[in-house]
Each structure stands twice: as structure tokens, then as C-alpha cells.
Design a protein that fits this description.
By secondary structure, this protein is mainly alpha-helical. The protein is built from five helices and three strands, in the order ααβαααββ. Helix content is 49%, strand content 9%. A hairpin with a 4-residue loop joins strand 2 and strand 3.
């Protein structure tokens, strides 16, 4: 077989198991109002951050931040860490803009 046939075989295999996931917990208005919209009405609470940290799958690999989920989940019980992370997320959400497609740009 040639490279094209191999690529087609992989594409068929991956497309058969691909799952389209929902946009996420953001309000629908963040995705559909014009080309670029600011979402300033999102409240991020201590309990939201804590709950998300506790739900992390420690068997997944780390993300683009290079912080392993196992470490983040372990730090979920540290109130100072969760409080600091909550403040960071709260400040970041004020600066995020969301494209109509749901992708985010950091300003």
C-alpha cells in the first residue's frame, strides 16, 4: 500500500470513534452573538474550581500548561491553592473573548 491508502485507513478508523463533545459550560450567548463577543457575566466560584479539580482524571496526560492532572487533583484540598486559582480564573475570564465557533482568544 502507499502512503495515501495508509492515511485513508487511519482516517476511517479515527472517524469511526470520534465523538463530538459539547461546547462546554459557557453560556450559549458567548458563542453566537456576532463574530467576537466578550463574556463578562461568567461567575467562577471557589466551589466551581474545587469541583472541577476533584473531577480531574489522574490517568490523563498533562495539558499545554505542562501541569499533570494528578498534581492538580492532589492540590484541590489545599484551600489557598484553590482560592488563588479561583482568582486567576476570575481575572482571566474578564480578558477572554470568544469567537463564534467557541474557540477562545487570550488578549
Amino acid at each position: 500500500t502507499n502512503d495515501h491508502d495508509t492515511a485513508e485507513c487511519f482516517a476511517d478508523a479515527f472517524s469511526s470513534v470520534f465523538v463530538e463533545e459539547p461546547q462546554g459550560p459557557l453560556p450559549e450567548a458567548c458563542y453566537n452573538n456576532g463574530n467576537v463577543e466578550t463574556c463578562n457575566d461568567i461567575d467562577i466560584s471557589f466551589s466551581d474550581v474545587y469541583d472541577e479539580l476533584k473531577k480531574l482524571d489522574v490517568y490523563k496526560s498533562f495539558g499545554p500548561d505542562k501541569v499533570h492532572p494528578k498534581l492538580l487533583k492532589a492540590l484541590a484540598d489545599n484551600e489557598d491553592f484553590v482560592r488563588t486559582l479561583t482568582l486567576l480564573y476570575d481575572n482571566w475570564q474578564r480578558k477572554l473573548r470568544f469567537l463564534k465557533s467557541g474557540k477562545k482568544l487570550t488578549l
